[in-house]
Amino acid sequence: MAKNRKAKPIASKAKATTPSNASPSSSQPASTLPTRSHSPPPLVKEEEEDMDDEPPVKRQPFRFFDLPSELRLRIYEEVFHITERHVMELYEGKQRAGNIVGLDERPDPPLDLEPNVNWFLVRPRLSLLQVSRQMHDEAYRVFYSQPMRLYPHHDRFFYTKQPLLARIPPRYRNIINTMEVRFGKGWSKIPKCQNTEPSLGLRDCTNLRLLKIFVQCDPSDSFFNGFRGKNANEDTYKWFCMEILRGILEQVPRLETVEIDAFPGIKQGAPLITALRRTIEEAGKKLVWGPLRGWEEQPEPLLGLQQMMAGMSIAEAPRVVEAQA
């Protein structure tokens, strides 16, 4: 039988090894030697990956039509109305427009066939009407309540066949309450679109209350002698403007007020201004003067001896009787 042998434990003697280049004097106790940190580096990338794995928060759309109707109407007015500041910023830039004093107090410019304004200002606003049927029904009345120019004034569309009023549907013509007409430009060659025919659509403007007339020049003045063209005299353009005004007043019976304004070079007693004023008074409409000239009612000037006596505070001037020999 084999004898049981006890296994002797193998004692491994750890030999202290020192680097060959270390001097014996540099040896220090183990407790004083600096220890190397074995903690893992911060998991920055893992945290970023965890954040990327989180689903993004889905924002709910703003429920615009949950607002009260009065507040929605106020927002429509701020968005759809084109002011004088908008036009000045388009042509002059925001910095120059900001230096103009009283720009916000100027009246809104009328809608017209003007390429730059229509492309950069009108077109984006009209696209909002296509958002939904409800927005269209609420906002189109606000947009078409702005002033509109009856005949085009821009050179590109001055001789067009159809003015802006003839291009829009009758449904939108009913909303117009202010319209502008400019007289003077093209006096030597009047465009055919400047008429009051039924195709223009004036009878559809049932809510039109204010007509603004702006006179740029008066060809009745003697300055235009020799430039009026063939078969034209000093009264030709004046009678044309009177016929245009009569046609508007006849087709828009609810028109209440007519405003007349002009450039500073035109006097209140000019033949064209006098003829327009007489036409308005014959139709029984209210006449007001525009802000540019600011004409006020003045008494007719006294002439001759009557004027001299009035300056002397005498009530009545004596009549001058011619003595017969």
TrEMBL record:
Residues 63-183 form the DUF7730 domain. Residues 1-60 are annotated as: Disordered. Residues 14-35 have a biased composition (Low complexity). Pfam families: DUF7730. InterPro entries: AN11006-like, DUF7730. It comes from the Eukaryota. This is DUF7730 domain-containing protein. It comes from Cladosporium halotolerans.
